[in-house]
Amino acid sequence: MKIVMSRSWVKIAAAAAVAGLAVSACSTTKFGAAALTGDSRISSSQLTTQVANLNTAYQADRAKGVKPQRTTAQETQQVLTWLILFRVYNKIAAQHNINVTPAQAQKEQAGLTSEAASNKVTLTEYVSAGGALPPDLLPQLDRYFAILSALEGRLDGGKAPTSSATQTKLESSVAHQQCLASKDLGVTVNPQFGVWDYNSYSVVPAPPTLAANPTPSASPSPITTTAPC
Q: CA-to-CA distance for 34 and 193, rounded, in angstroms?
Protein backbone atom coordinates (compact mmCIF):
# COMPACT_ATOMS: atom_id res chain seq x y z
CA MET A 1 0.00 0.00 0.00
CA LYS A 2 1.27 3.42 -0.93
CA ILE A 3 0.53 6.24 1.48
CA VAL A 4 -0.46 9.60 0.04
CA MET A 5 1.10 12.26 2.25
CA SER A 6 -0.88 15.49 2.28
CA ARG A 7 1.51 17.36 4.56
CA SER A 8 4.77 18.89 3.44
CA TRP A 9 6.40 17.79 6.71
CA VAL A 10 7.37 14.41 5.28
CA LYS A 11 9.86 16.17 3.02
CA ILE A 12 11.81 17.20 6.09
CA ALA A 13 12.55 13.65 7.11
CA ALA A 14 13.66 12.45 3.69
CA ALA A 15 17.44 12.43 3.84
CA ALA A 16 18.98 12.59 0.36
CA ALA A 17 21.91 10.39 -0.65
CA VAL A 18 24.86 12.56 -1.54
CA ALA A 19 28.46 12.24 -2.67
CA GLY A 20 31.61 14.32 -2.80
CA LEU A 21 31.70 15.78 0.73
CA ALA A 22 34.91 15.33 2.68
CA VAL A 23 34.31 15.02 6.43
CA SER A 24 37.18 15.17 8.89
CA ALA A 25 37.61 12.18 11.14
CA CYS A 26 38.21 14.59 14.00
CA SER A 27 34.73 15.21 15.34
CA THR A 28 33.69 18.17 17.45
CA THR A 29 30.98 16.03 19.03
CA LYS A 30 31.48 14.70 22.52
CA PHE A 31 32.21 11.04 23.11
CA GLY A 32 29.05 8.97 22.87
CA ALA A 33 27.05 11.73 21.19
CA ALA A 34 25.25 11.31 17.90
CA ALA A 35 24.68 15.07 17.74
CA LEU A 36 25.04 18.22 19.80
CA THR A 37 22.35 20.89 19.99
CA GLY A 38 23.29 23.80 22.19
CA ASP A 39 24.27 22.66 25.68
CA SER A 40 22.58 19.28 25.28
CA ARG A 41 23.31 16.20 23.26
CA ILE A 42 21.54 13.35 21.53
CA SER A 43 23.30 10.23 22.64
CA SER A 44 24.28 7.41 20.33
CA SER A 45 22.35 4.99 22.53
CA GLN A 46 19.20 7.12 22.24
CA LEU A 47 19.55 7.16 18.47
CA THR A 48 20.14 3.40 18.32
CA THR A 49 17.02 2.77 20.42
CA GLN A 50 14.83 4.95 18.23
CA VAL A 51 16.15 3.44 15.00
CA ALA A 52 15.29 0.02 16.44
CA ASN A 53 11.80 1.32 17.28
CA LEU A 54 11.35 2.52 13.71
CA ASN A 55 12.49 -0.80 12.25
CA THR A 56 10.09 -2.64 14.57
CA ALA A 57 7.29 -0.40 13.30
CA TYR A 58 8.37 -1.11 9.72
CA GLN A 59 8.06 -4.84 10.35
CA ALA A 60 4.52 -4.37 11.66
CA ASP A 61 3.70 -2.10 8.71
CA ARG A 62 4.94 -4.60 6.13
CA ALA A 63 2.95 -7.38 7.81
CA LYS A 64 -0.17 -5.33 7.02
CA GLY A 65 0.92 -4.54 3.48
CA VAL A 66 2.05 -0.98 4.25
CA LYS A 67 5.43 -0.21 2.70
CA PRO A 68 7.86 2.44 4.01
CA GLN A 69 7.78 5.54 1.81
CA ARG A 70 11.17 6.90 2.85
CA THR A 71 14.49 5.92 1.32
CA THR A 72 15.50 2.55 2.72
CA ALA A 73 18.84 1.97 4.48
CA GLN A 74 18.86 5.57 5.74
CA GLU A 75 16.84 5.05 8.90
CA THR A 76 19.66 6.32 11.09
CA GLN A 77 19.85 9.67 9.30
CA GLN A 78 16.08 9.98 9.11
CA VAL A 79 15.51 9.34 12.81
CA LEU A 80 18.38 11.61 13.82
CA THR A 81 16.83 14.32 11.64
CA TRP A 82 13.65 14.14 13.69
CA LEU A 83 15.49 14.18 17.00
CA ILE A 84 17.37 17.31 15.92
CA LEU A 85 14.34 19.02 14.40
CA PHE A 86 12.37 18.62 17.61
CA ARG A 87 15.11 20.52 19.42
CA VAL A 88 15.34 23.12 16.68
CA TYR A 89 11.62 23.79 17.01
CA ASN A 90 11.84 23.94 20.78
CA LYS A 91 14.43 26.66 20.20
CA ILE A 92 12.10 28.43 17.79
CA ALA A 93 9.36 28.29 20.42
CA ALA A 94 11.69 29.88 22.95
CA GLN A 95 12.82 32.56 20.49
CA HIS A 96 9.24 33.51 19.61
CA ASN A 97 7.70 32.97 23.04
CA ILE A 98 5.43 30.21 21.72
CA ASN A 99 3.81 28.13 24.45
CA VAL A 100 2.14 24.95 23.23
CA THR A 101 -0.97 23.90 25.13
CA PRO A 102 -2.23 20.30 25.37
CA ALA A 103 -5.26 21.33 23.31
CA GLN A 104 -3.04 22.61 20.49
CA ALA A 105 -1.02 19.39 20.48
CA GLN A 106 -4.20 17.30 20.47
CA LYS A 107 -5.52 19.32 17.54
CA GLU A 108 -2.39 18.51 15.52
CA GLN A 109 -2.69 14.80 16.33
CA ALA A 110 -6.35 14.86 15.32
CA GLY A 111 -5.29 16.26 11.94
CA LEU A 112 -2.73 13.51 11.51
CA THR A 113 -5.27 10.88 12.54
CA SER A 114 -7.68 12.20 9.91
CA GLU A 115 -5.00 12.04 7.23
CA ALA A 116 -4.12 8.49 8.29
CA ALA A 117 -7.76 7.47 8.05
CA SER A 118 -8.00 8.91 4.54
CA ASN A 119 -5.13 6.59 3.61
CA LYS A 120 -6.84 3.66 5.32
CA VAL A 121 -3.98 3.18 7.78
CA THR A 122 -3.56 3.72 11.50
CA LEU A 123 -1.85 6.78 12.90
CA THR A 124 1.26 4.79 13.85
CA GLU A 125 1.45 3.30 10.35
CA TYR A 126 1.02 6.76 8.85
CA VAL A 127 3.90 8.37 10.75
CA SER A 128 6.26 5.40 10.57
CA ALA A 129 5.73 4.25 6.98
CA GLY A 130 5.03 7.76 5.72
CA GLY A 131 7.45 9.88 7.71
CA ALA A 132 10.16 7.56 9.06
CA LEU A 133 9.14 8.55 12.59
CA PRO A 134 9.31 6.04 15.46
CA PRO A 135 5.68 5.95 16.72
CA ASP A 136 6.68 6.53 20.36
CA LEU A 137 7.86 10.01 19.30
CA LEU A 138 4.31 11.06 18.38
CA PRO A 139 4.01 13.50 21.35
CA GLN A 140 7.11 15.33 20.10
CA LEU A 141 5.64 15.39 16.58
CA ASP A 142 2.40 16.91 17.89
CA ARG A 143 4.38 19.62 19.65
CA TYR A 144 6.51 20.20 16.54
CA PHE A 145 3.42 20.82 14.41
CA ALA A 146 1.83 23.03 17.05
CA ILE A 147 4.96 25.20 17.12
CA LEU A 148 5.09 25.28 13.32
CA SER A 149 1.44 26.28 13.12
CA ALA A 150 1.91 29.08 15.65
CA LEU A 151 5.06 30.27 13.88
CA GLU A 152 3.32 30.38 10.51
CA GLY A 153 0.46 32.31 12.08
CA ARG A 154 2.86 34.96 13.29
CA LEU A 155 4.85 35.14 10.08
CA ASP A 156 1.80 35.57 7.84
CA GLY A 157 -0.14 37.77 10.23
CA GLY A 158 -2.75 35.11 10.82
CA LYS A 159 -3.76 35.06 7.17
CA ALA A 160 -3.48 31.78 5.30
CA PRO A 161 -1.58 31.99 1.97
CA THR A 162 -3.94 32.65 -0.91
CA SER A 163 -1.50 32.07 -3.77
CA SER A 164 1.55 30.01 -4.63
CA ALA A 165 3.66 33.15 -4.30
CA THR A 166 2.52 33.86 -0.75
CA GLN A 167 2.90 30.18 0.14
CA THR A 168 6.46 30.19 -1.18
CA LYS A 169 7.20 33.36 0.77
CA LEU A 170 5.86 31.78 3.97
CA GLU A 171 7.90 28.62 3.45
CA SER A 172 11.00 30.75 2.92
CA SER A 173 10.31 32.64 6.14
CA VAL A 174 9.88 29.40 8.08
CA ALA A 175 13.12 28.06 6.61
CA HIS A 176 14.88 31.25 7.72
CA GLN A 177 13.68 30.74 11.28
CA GLN A 178 14.85 27.11 11.15
CA CYS A 179 18.23 28.36 9.99
CA LEU A 180 18.49 30.91 12.80
CA ALA A 181 17.51 28.35 15.44
CA SER A 182 19.89 25.71 14.07
CA LYS A 183 22.68 28.27 13.97
CA ASP A 184 21.97 29.39 17.53
CA LEU A 185 22.05 25.77 18.70
CA GLY A 186 25.24 25.12 16.75
CA VAL A 187 23.89 21.81 15.48
CA THR A 188 26.78 19.39 15.12
CA VAL A 189 26.40 15.81 13.90
CA ASN A 190 28.90 13.06 14.62
CA PRO A 191 30.42 12.22 11.19
CA GLN A 192 29.76 8.57 12.00
CA PHE A 193 26.07 9.29 11.46
CA GLY A 194 26.19 11.93 8.76
CA VAL A 195 26.15 15.70 8.46
CA TRP A 196 23.55 18.42 9.07
CA ASP A 197 22.52 19.93 5.74
CA TYR A 198 21.15 23.48 5.83
CA ASN A 199 19.57 23.05 2.40
CA SER A 200 17.17 20.32 3.48
CA TYR A 201 17.41 20.75 7.28
CA SER A 202 18.11 17.08 7.59
CA VAL A 203 20.94 14.71 8.40
CA VAL A 204 22.36 13.32 5.19
CA PRO A 205 24.84 10.46 4.88
CA ALA A 206 28.47 11.53 4.91
CA PRO A 207 30.23 9.69 2.08
CA PRO A 208 33.64 8.11 2.64
CA THR A 209 36.65 10.30 2.02
CA LEU A 210 38.61 7.49 0.38
CA ALA A 211 38.10 5.63 -2.88
CA ALA A 212 35.83 8.25 -4.35
CA ASN A 213 34.11 7.24 -7.56
CA PRO A 214 35.98 9.10 -10.35
CA THR A 215 33.00 8.77 -12.70
CA PRO A 216 29.83 9.27 -10.66
CA SER A 217 26.61 8.37 -12.44
CA ALA A 218 24.93 11.58 -11.38
CA SER A 219 25.91 14.99 -10.08
CA PRO A 220 25.95 15.07 -6.27
CA SER A 221 23.34 17.08 -4.47
CA PRO A 222 24.69 20.32 -3.02
CA ILE A 223 25.20 20.39 0.73
CA THR A 224 25.47 23.42 2.96
CA THR A 225 26.98 22.58 6.33
CA THR A 226 27.30 26.12 7.67
CA ALA A 227 24.29 28.30 8.42
CA PRO A 228 23.53 30.56 5.42
CA CYS A 229 21.39 32.90 7.53
A: 7
